[in-house]
Amino acid sequence: MATIVREFPYAVREIPHMEIVLRDGTRLAARMWLPETSTPVPAILEYLPYRKGDGTAIDDPTRHRYFAGHGFASIRVDMRGSGDSDGVLLDEYSAEELGDGVEVIAWLAAQPWCNGSVGMIGLSWGGFNSLQIAALAPPALKAIITLCSTDDRYGDDVHYAGGAVLAREMLSWAMTFLGFNAKPPDPQTIGERWRELWQQRLDATPAFVDTWLEHSQRDAYWQHGSVCEDYGAIRCAVLAVGGWADGYTNTVMRLLDGLDAPCRGIIGPWAHNYPYNGRPGPAIGFLQESVRWWDQWLNGRERGALDTPKLRVFIEDRTEPRAKVATGRWLGSALEPREFDAREWYFGDGAMRASPGVRVSIALPNDPRHGQAAGLWCPFGPSDLAADQRPDDAVSLTFDSVPFDADVTLLGRPHVDVECDALAGAHIVARLTEVAPDGSSLLLSWGVRELDAAGTQNARVDMNVLGRRVRAGHRLRLALAASYWPMVWPAAVAAPTIVAGVGRLTLPVWRGPFAPVEFGPPECAEPAQFTTLKKGAVESFADGAGTRLEHGRVRHANGMETETVFSDLMTFDGNTPTIRCERDFELARDGWRTTIAVRGTMTSDATTFAVDVGLTASLDGAPCADRTWRFRIPRRNA
């Protein structure tokens, strides 16, 4: 747990609500923390759709007050169409969103309390748009810190992986986003305008999922906002941060390889959270690292921001699944080619060997139970991480190495190359696990490939980046299958046949040097005050079929009460996969109560996705919205 810091070099003044008026008259709501000084200071922007007044209100001060206490103006802005801002939010990472962000940066740089230099920070959505706005090169933006984000919206986000639909995430995130988008502004903050603005949102919000399913190929829709299309567009300094337990494991190493701008990377054991919180642990002194980064690039002081190794990485040792604290050590790498070997293993007859074997054609298993131990694609840790893999191994085609006679360190992206005979649209799923002498199987990495062509072909399945030390006496296991439910939406065609004996797994072996690195202890400023009115609860459905998550009821420092319930149910009856998502939100004050309910169902046959969505909203029990959407969308490769 991070140490709470209450005394800083600068006294801090908080402005709970202010408005930034854009050129078109749109008012964006913001919350700001200012250091008490007569000298102009840099500004740090976090730019999100998650409601500064209640959605992120508790945790925001832990970072922003900390930054202000070290001499930076730190500002949290609600995007257009969210929280207490004007307008309607129509999609993720739109040109309008990014253009507004550029305008906000220019506004910050022009303020009398700002020295003209601006940085951006954000996790997840805020990490995405930090990269995307950096690629637009606003003159005042000198540095960013991007966490748990992606440079590739099609290949590495919640919608698709390897060309295949991410089953639970596709609908689950769409329904969550729809619910967030339908929340009202706070009447206490913006006055009587709230009701008109809320109705605009309720009437105009799309369902989102249809757009994402319709764009099933890597087209211009996904290329927009994917900075991997042109890394050279980013000219400011980039600190990229990720976690091995997060869904966005691949971004950091790709950015370090692709960017020409000054850049450094940190990858820890964490899931989808800030490293000073560090779930699973160990947490680090991330905010101290951030202040050093800001000071160098925004104040122009030499703080040794580039004197660290290019990548500081937590190399994990074997840890029990879903452990609260991972075991391992922090090491540094320059990511030079001489540090790495590509080690090939050929798989066949249940084993992995250093040389090819006899060619044997084998149909991949297509058991819908494969995936029950996968955990969530984007976990928050540790309870939603991957479990012991033996249940999934039992319904896969598995190939084991001999026990290692010495420790081996892996760092990078494994991949599988295999000859196969398949129909277009077939899936190949690959998992890599570490098997201990007691037989337990720990997930190291996984990947999926949806095949675009029919017939005999060579296919490559890229797995996620990993950083792991495999112990002497342990084995590696490659597991192959044609399904991964409910992580991946099932293919519409028969399972492919692969040729074992000549297929190979390529592993990124890190030979060192293994230079230890250290971080300071985790610390942060004090979170906002709140009162828990009702504790949260988690209910897991049988056979890994889903969860019901009650977030509890909270009264925030501004008096707003919020209560949220999420429920996801995934079933596979016969040949019919189905996902049902429910999202219920309540926001209330004395004499004022709003509710939002979102319902979504997604299923498919061999040719078509069927998605039905509903949105209802009420004010003091009176209906304000009752909308339904019915989508029938052709499947890719159908």
Give a brief description.
With 638 residues, this protein is an alpha+beta fold.
Global morphology: globular
How far apart lie the N and C ends?
Answer: 50 Å
**Total count of helical runs of at least 4 residues:** 11
Strand content: 35-45%
The strand line-up of the biggest sheet is: 2-3-5-4-6-7-10-11-12-13-27
The profile of the biggest β sheet is:
11 strands, mixed
- Helicity level, as a percent range? 10-25%
Write the layout of secondary structure elements.
Blueprint: E1 3-5, E2 12-21, E3 27-35, E4 41-48, H1 60-69, E5 73-78, H2 95-110, E6 114-123, H3 125-134, E7 141-147, E8 160-161, E9 164-165, H4 167-181, H5 187-190, H6 193-204, H7 209-214, H8 220-223, E10 237-243, H9 251-258, E11 263-268, H10 286-299, E12 311-316, E13 328-333, E14 340-348, E15 351-353, E16 360-363, H11 390-393, E17 397-400, E18 408-412, E19 415-422, E20 427-435, E21 441-450, E22 455-462, E23 466-470, E24 475-481, E25 497-500, E26 503-510, E27 515-516, E28 523-525, E29 530-534, E30 537-540, E31 546-556, E32 561-573, E33 576-589, E34 592-604, E35 608-619, E36 622-634
Parallel strand pairs: 1-28, 4-5, 4-6, 6-7, 7-10, 10-11, 11-12
Antiparallel strand pairs: 2-3, 3-5, 8-9, 12-13, 13-27, 14-15, 14-26, 16-25, 17-24, 18-23, 19-22, 19-25, 19-26, 20-21, 20-24, 29-31, 30-31, 31-32, 32-33, 33-34, 34-35, 35-36
